[in-house]
Write a structure and sequence with these properties.
With about 210 residues, this protein is an alpha/beta fold. The strands form two sheets. An eight-stranded mixed β-sheet has the order 5-4-3-6-1-7-10-9. It has a two-stranded antiparallel ribbon with strand order 2-8. It has one domain: Dihydrofolate Reductase, subunit A (3-Layer(aba) Sandwich). The two termini are about 20 Å apart. A hairpin with a 5-residue loop joins strand 9 and strand 10. About 30% of the residues lie in helices and about 25% in strands. The relative contact order is 0.23. The longest helix is centred in the first third of the chain and has 13 residues.
Length: about 210
């Protein structure tokens, strides 16, 4: 599916190890400095999109950042960063579309359950600002399979874990991506930005 010039774009951001995992063999993710860093790569967004599997913990964490910072300090071993407080405020005020066939309701006022990927496709075709695809990997894979990811950004951490949960798996067909930016950041991390080849070609023509 292609976007019209005024339609929203879906940008997925994932934090991965150098060998391509989002979780280590024991489910650890201690190399991630902050989950707020994904949103910081984007400008103003119209919505957040995430899968039902990750939503309960996501909702609990970001609600606690504003409502109960002490519990967050116990959870992550430090006080929340300013950018995390900012993320929590933006998240509380921005619509969240949660793709799930098992969840029936969301207690977070800004969230609503989306039962099918077709509803996300219809939302994407509407005029508006970019949409932040938070994850998890199953959701990103499904969106890629349906041609709904306009940009994929990887925050690559300089660590090798050897095994764990890959950042993408289960794609139903081969897809070509174009690298449009590679930006070194602090602590040896690199942000790689990819677009589907057709999307990258269209952007180059428009430019």
């Amino acid at each position: 599916m292609s976007t019209t010039p005024s339609s929203r774009t879906f940008t997925a951001v994932l934090q991965v190890t150098l060998d391509g995992f989002i979780l280590g063999p024991e489910g650890e993710v201690d190399w991630v400095d902050s989950w707020a860093d994904g949103l910081n790569l984007l400008g103003e967004v119209d919505a957040f999109v995430l899968g039902g599997g990750m939503f309960p913990d996501y909702e609990e964490f970001w609600t606690a950042v504003t409502d109960d910072p002490a519990s967050v300090t116990e959870w992550i071993g430090r006080e929340p960063y300013e950018r995390e407080i900012s993320y929590a405020r933006v998240a509380a005020a921005t619509p969240h579309l949660v793709l799930s066939t098992t969840l029936t309701k969301a207690t977070w006022p800004s969230a609503r359950i989306v039962g099918g990927i077709g509803e996300l496709a219809a939302f994407r075709e509407q005029p508006g600002n970019p949409v932040y695809v938070v994850g998890g990997p199953g959701l990103v894979t499904s969106l890629l399979d349906h041609g709904l990811v306009d940009e994929l950004r990887l925050i690559v951490h300089p660590i090798l874990v050897g095994a764990g949960t890959p950042f993408l798996s289960g794609l139903t067909e081969r897809r070509a991506l174009a690298l449009v930016a590679a930006e070194p950041t602090e602590a040896g991390r690199v942000v790689l930005t990819y677009r589907p080849v057709a999307v990258a070609a269209a952007a180059a023509t428009a430019g």
